[in-house]
Amino acid sequence: MNKQQRKEIEGIVGLISPYADSNVLSEMDEAGRGVTTNVIDDARSEIESIKADEEEKLENMPESLRDGSKGEQQQEVIDNLDSAVGALEDAVAADHDEEWATTVAEKVAEAVDSLNSV
Question: Which domain holds residue 65?
Answer without folding.
Answer: 3-116
